Amino acid sequence: VCLCEGLGNMTLFDKAQALKFPKFVEINFDHCSDLEELPGSICSLTSLERLSVTNCHLIQKLPDDLGRLRSLRLLRLSACPSLSMLPPSICRLQQLKFLDISLCMSLKDLPMEFDQLPKLKMLDMNECSGLKMLPKALAKLRSLKRVICDEHTEQQWLAIKASAMPNLTVDVVEERFNLDWLDD
Q1: Could you list the residue ranges that cross the membrane (predicted)?
Q2: For the whole model, what pTM was predicted?
Q3: Mean pLDDT of residues grouped by 10 in the chain (184 residues)?
C-alpha cells in the first residue's frame, strides 16, 4: 500500500478476512498520508515476516497485540514522526532480526523488556531525538551486531559496547534532516 489516502477510517482486515490470506509474508505501508493507527486485525496475519510502515506521518500508535506476529523478522517503522511509543508486546517477537525506528522523533523510550528479543541483529535508531535514555536491558541483547544511531545516543551505545558487547558495531550517522534554515 503506497501513496494512499483513505486508510485512516478503513478496517484493513477483520479476522475472517485475515484467515483467507494465511500466507501473507510482507506488507508495506508507505506514504499513507491519513493513516493514524495500524488496525489491530493485522496481528492476525501470523505468517507475516516483514512489516514496513514508512513515511506515515500521522501514525501515532501500533497495535497492542503486535507481539502475535510470531514470524516477523523485519519491522521497519521509519519516518513515522508522530509515533510516540512501541507496544510492550513488541518484545515477544522472538524471530525479529531487524528493527528500524529511524526518524521516529516522538519516541520517548523503548520497552524495558527489549532483552527478550533473542535474535535481534540490527537496530536502526538514527534521528530518534525523543529517546534520551536507553534501557539497561539492551546490554543483554547478545545477538545484536550492529546499531545505527546519531550523536544523541552515541555515548550510551559506546558505554554498552565497552561494558557488555565488545563485538557490537556502532555506526553514527550525521543528521540528515534539519530545519535550522527556517530560522534564517
Answers
A1: none
A2: 0.86
A3: 45 48 83 88 92 94 95 97 95 97 95 94 95 91 96 95 96 72 49
